[in-house]
Amino acid sequence: MAKKRVKLLIKGLVQGVNFRYYTQREARKYNLTGWVRNLPDGSVGALLEGEEQDVEAMIQWCRHGPPSARVTELIVQPEEYKGEFQSFSILY
After folding, report:
1. Active centre residues (catalytic)
2. Is residue 90 part of a domain?
């Protein structure tokens, strides 16, 4: 199976709606590693690593996020897979 790594920038109403918590929960369901964090401009950033189909499923989830979020834009930036993470974390 192919491994994949992407960096995401998620814009919209994504802070103050438990986006990071739900992202971590979903990422763990897909056995992904990496991180998610709030950014100073009100968006959320994430880095995902894992099996290609699992990363793609997580990208699709991030297009809408948790029930109280309103995602207006999702920017996906592919990166070279590194396998550098042991788990999926919320960064502060």
Report:
1. 20, 38
2. no
